[in-house]
Specification:
about 475 residues; alpha+beta; four-stranded antiparallel sheet; 6 strands; elongated; membrane; transmembrane; transmembrane helix; LPS_length_determ_N; coiled coil
Amino acid sequence: MSTLPSVRELLAAVFRNVRWIALALIVPPVVAVVLAFTFPKVYQADAKLLIKPGREFMPATNMGQNQFALPSSTMAEIVKSEVEILNSKDLAEATLKKLTVASLYPDLAAAPDDVALERAVTRFEKQLRVDPIDLSNVVNVGFQSEDPDITTKVLTALLADFQARHVSAYSGGQIEPIVAQIAAKQKDLATLDAKRIEYQNLTGAFSIPEQRASLIQQRAQVQTLLQDAQIKEGALEQQVAFLKKSKANTPKMSALETEVDPSSQSSSEALQQLMALRAKEQEMLQHYQPTAPAVVQLRAQIAQAEDFVKQAQSPSASKTRTGANPLLASIDQQLLTAQSELTPITSQIEGYKGQIANFDDQLKKLQDSELEVNNLTRQIESLTADLLNLRTNLEQARLAENMDQAKVSSVSIIDAPRLEPRPVFPKKSLFGLAGIAVGVLIAGLITLLSLSFGNTIITVEGAERIFGVPVVAALPDLKPLPAK
């Protein structure tokens, strides 16, 4: 059998307690309606703020910072920040001081100022409503009061003070620091510029590329002169060695009267021709390679001349009256001439080498000077770029300050404070519905208590549910018969 009451049993319990249920359904709605007419009326003024992405919310970069590395705020974070400013205690105190506590809350006029202000702020926070609208950048601001004129006045003063505080909170105030940074950078720039000029005056490194090109050109010219002198020195050394060898092989005594073959030349003329050919060989080696055809042909002529000199100097070529060999005197004269020419060439070579070493030293010093000048120049260029950025930031800061002074912000009032024509509290319809709901709840509770704790069995189903056995028969309530 079911342990729950049936519908018949429920209806029987309702009819049994119909008076109490009727009172429960009538009294709470009546009381609620009476309270709705009894409570003081509360009015509300509403305004709407639009929060736009503006200059205040852009991250400001300092010198040396990367703009793209700075954190950025989302619109949800920005809206939440503005809501916190609207709900701040300082803003409530400023509004209360502006409108006076006594005019808004006359019952607090007798209290001390600090106590009255604290209590007024507590009431003010309860009366203020700040609700961001979902999926938008709009914030709805409302204020409730029993006096409809006060609501609009308070909301107007609150929003005006809020906009001023918004501008003050997000104002940069960066003009003075930027001006100080510009002055410091200009001082450093002047110091570096003076240091560069002093270094250039000290080292003479004014036009380094032109100076380097001039030194390299002069060194190349001296190098060419050195190579020519070395080649000439080598030729003279070979000539001296040859003359010394010829002198050693030439006898001191020779035939003074000689019968010579008419078709041959004298040995002295042959030797002079051989020396001329050797000098020409050295000159050609300065301009041609040893394997050049002209050089090879010349060397062949030199070999023929040497053979002719050997034949001319052989004993069989002459018939003899001996005496001092005139060829030896000629060789001595040529050797002396060659040695006298070799000495200044050696000095010239040493001088050329010294000039080349001097040019190398100047080039090294010029390179060191270039590194130092380039380092100072890079520092000056970096400071110049920093000054340009600071001047740009200064112009932006001045523009922002002018906008702050003009109270230009990204928060706009899109809906001015406006009083709702009907009071927001109490709402009679809501009170009536609440009374009906309470009456229904009480009526249901009465029915439930009657079924749970009542000691009267009303229906057959109730008897079966209570005793747990089926009912075989139910006798009606019989009236007694009248007496005869």
